[in-house]
Design brief:
By secondary structure, this protein is an alpha+beta fold. The protein has two domains: 8-130 and 322-335, Probable inorganic polyphosphate/atp-NAD kinase, domain 1 (Rossmann fold); 137-315, Tumour Suppressor Smad4, CATH 2.60.200.40. It has nine helices and 16 strands. The protein has helices spanning 23-40, 53-63, 76-86, 103-107, 115-128, 161-170, 177-189, 254-264, 324-335; strands spanning 8-13, 43-47, 69-74, 93-97, 131-141, 150-153, 156-158, 195-202, 209-215, 218-221, 243-248, 275-280, 282-287, 297-299, 302-305, 309-321. The two termini are 20 Å apart.
């Protein structure tokens, strides 16, 4: 754990436009709580929310040298903003998980959908210096040395039907995240396409594994959950310096796809003959002449661009504020490692 100075500036970024405008009231409530209770602890709270995601990111980067902590309010898209603002620096990130997905927070047992509980946990973490260091995924465009794409992700990189589901859910008008992803998943599972990929990956074994893959599903996981509670990668560990590649080995029938989707909510799809699952250190994904062109890639629910990309695990790139009980559990868990 790292102790944080008692005089601390907490920067907050909210997402007023989310959830058809309901994100504004969520953000306002979070700010009121942090300011009211934070002032009693000697913390200053500033709002760096801009007119757009790009404005908010620019505001954070402009003031990065003058803040001690960044807090994002919203779902996994806001986690993505926070991660890319503070990755590889000593500024901790706090998450008030009140979005449609909240998958990264769910995997860490952080409060979900509870503004006051989340804010209280963050203030306690700041006061006690309660942080953990986590790996991130790092995606760069492979055709231009990272000029086109250069981004971190906390949860998952979606490259196929999973990206299509994510994009469809993002545009849904249904009121709840789980319903949005369920509706999108059912629609896409009933209209499955086979996408063509060239895969070049490194594992713990020597050498590079190269092959072409025609599949409706390929995803690269850093964390366990996606799609508002689908446990797509149940064995993901945020501190092992590895990612997980999940893919479908053949084109499933619609009933088979729906059955696997249902099992994935419990993480029970791993081990099914249809599903491939492999730990990797890095991977380069390009297009293959076989199959359809893949959708726009989605990292933590945000569009980032198209293939080809290189993806690798980035060790201990994120310092995350967590309640002391989680930090203690984390320390005990990792002290038992050989």
């Amino acid at each position: 754990m790292t102790l944080i100075a008692s005089r601390t500036t907490i920067a907050v970024v909210t997402n007023p436009a989310s959830d058809n405008g309901r994100g504004r009231s969520v953000g306002d409530e979070a700010l009121r709580y942090l300011r009211g209770h934070g002032s009693r602890l000697g913390f200053g709270v500033i709002d760096l929310t801009g007119e757009s995601r790009e404005d908010s990111m620019a505001n954070v980067r402009r003031d990065l040298a003058d803040i001690d902590t960044l807090v994002v309010v919203g779902g996994d898209g806001m986690v993505s903003l926070g991660v890319n603002a503070v990755a590889d620096c000593d500024i901790p990130l706090g998450i008030i998980a009140c979005g449609s997905g909240n998958d990264f927070a769910r995997g860490l047992d952080l409060p979900v959908g509870r503004i006051h509980a989340s804010a209280e946990s963050i203030l306690a973490a700041v006061a006690g210096g309660s942080t953990i260091n986590l790996d991130l995924g790092h995606v760069t465009s492979a055709d231009d040395g990272g000029e086109r794409i250069n981004t971190f992700f906390a949860g998952m990189l979606n490259c196929s039907i999973d990206a299509a589901i994510n994009d469809r859910a993002n545009h849904s008008r249904l009121p709840f995240g789980t319903l949005r992803y369920l509706e999108a998943g059912i629609w896409e599972a009933s209209h499955v396409q086979d996408y063509g990929f060239h895969v070049s990956m490194r594992t713990d074994e020597p050498g590079v594994v190269d092959f072409d893959l025609t599949t409706p599903l390929i995803a690269i996981a850093n964390a366990r959950y996606i799609g508002s509670g689908i446990e797509a990668s149940p064995d993901s560990d945020l501190t092992d310096g590895q990612l997980e590649m999940i893919w479908a080995k053949w084109h499933p029938s619609a009933p088979e796809a729906l059955r696997i989707l249902a099992k994935a909510y419990r993480g029970d799809h791993i081990g099914e003959p249809l599903i491939g699952y492999r730990r990797i250190r890095s991977i380069t994904l390009g297009e293959s002449p076989h199959g359809s062109r893949s959708p726009v890639l989605m990292a933590d629910g945000e569009r980032i661009g198209r293939l080809p990309v290189r993806v690798e695990a980035h060790r201990r790139a994120l310092k995350l504020l967590v309640p002391p009980r989680i930090a203690q559990r984390w320390a005990e868990r990792h002290s038992r490692r050989p």
